[in-house]
Amino acid sequence: MKTEVLPCCSTCLDVLGKYGGPVTLPCGHNGCLQCMASIQQRKAECPLCRRPFPASECQLTVNHELRRLLSLAAALTTVEHENGWQAVTTHQAQTTHPAELAESGMQGLMLVPTAPPMHLTLSGVLGGGGDLLSCEAPAWLPDSYAPSCGTCHAPFIAMRRSRHHCRLCGQIFCNRCSSHRMLLPPKFQTKLPERVCDTCATTLKPLQPFLAGTISEAVRPAVHDVTDASVLRSWLNNPFSMSLAADIYKATNIARSWAAVGSTRPEKAIPPAVLQGAAGFAILSVAKVGMGWSGALGTGLVVAKRADGSWSAPSSLSLWGLGWGIQFGGALHDLLLVLKTKAAVQAFCGSMHLGLGGSTGLAVGPLGRQAEANLRASPTAASLCYSYSCSRGIYAGVSLEGSVVSVRNSVNTDFYGRPVTARQLLLDDTIAPPAAAQSLFTALTELLAGPCGPALEAVSPLQRALPPPPSQSIFTAEASETDDEESIPDSEAHADGSQQQAASQPQPYSTHLAATESYTGLPYAHSSALQDEEEQMPGMGMFDD
């Protein structure tokens, strides 16, 4: 049978209905759905008779009866060969032919595979050629192809109405008509939500829960999980990270650095009394520059401890602050905030909260350490937390500082693949801990264990929630011998033989919150306000709700 029986589209000159299926115009002429839709967007006239078919009067739909006729015509051109397989002819000629076709005298024929097409775009899915999960990335239309938006037909204007391509269909739309961000099918090979038009967003919406649990960045194991000196990125934490995966990496790096300090220099580590019973941690990397007035900007995350002992899903944070005082220089601070109570975690669940504090700092060279006590307040909660920092740079001064910490909802959406709130991540336990944050959870667990891990494990959960007794309170090196004797129970004194011997033995909690002069080899930053606070610590009232 001659191949001319298969009609062609007057626009693409290919088999009729190849792109989206056949469509019949009001004038009676036929064409491909995508071809006619493109013509309707630019100049709604039939390419053969020039009869108009505007979108307001003519809605293009697939002519299913014509599609069945085309399928029948294609089946009639099928030729059965001697081995039982079938060859389907088309209107396109082929210059080279298989030997068996040449012997049969069938010239100008081309074999078409009977398997589904290897490249399935959205038009093929809408035409019934496959499912949406098998859809692949289309070829984007050139910018010159669409002088106006494909949905609202508003003309594009520089700086006011720019062109945006829909990642699913490849068409061009304005910002208002393509404001949605959705996860795309697996064959698009992207793990972040991408820009799609309103029509494609409606098509993809039912698949979002499935895609968020299979291809989002949260469910993929972390690729960058090495934080030792062999990796250049671990030398300096970027304070302006743009993704939660980068926040997880630098939070892991900061937590492991504090755990290493606890194992090599226990007197400079975070006191176990502060870590004991912690409800969560906020870990940030902040850049600070000041001369009289100072400014700070950074990013990080917050993670909470659940009732069963596991860790919650992390939530991304951003920080910016201002300070005033006698200060000069610039430094990068790796902050670790210990959240002692659930109220402190709730303060990080709001869209924005304030922080107030003061510090006396000195950092000269590659490393300095500092400890502070800060008040955090949000519209829903307020609580006290402890801040420990590792500084790099040249900075010295005394200042009064305020900061604003806000939740980066867009970063959380990109990481988890769907819109989530900080409360859902930290308190509601509705989202499982992501696989991408397992290295962070391991580092925090090691930090809580520390050199005094066995001692903390021996304490019951009820005792962890209560303030430690006076014998376990933090005291300064300048405390008198009488005070040391009073802080040790009689039972311990009799067990050792005398109260004097018990007082001379080192206590597991006799550690300064701030760096001391015995920390040689590395410069440090010191908080004078914290020393006054340590004298009040035997009551541990600061750890109460």
From TrEMBL:
Q: Which organism is it from?
A: Apatococcus lobatus
Keywords from UniProt, A to Z, are:
Metal-binding, Zinc, Zinc-finger
Q: Where is the composition biased (Acidic residues)?
A: 480-489
Recorded protein name is: Uncharacterized protein
Q: Among its keywords, does the record have Zinc? A: yes
All copies of domain RING-type, residue ranges: 9-50
Keyword Zinc-finger carried by entry: yes
Citing just one GO molecular function, the answer is:
phosphatidylinositol binding
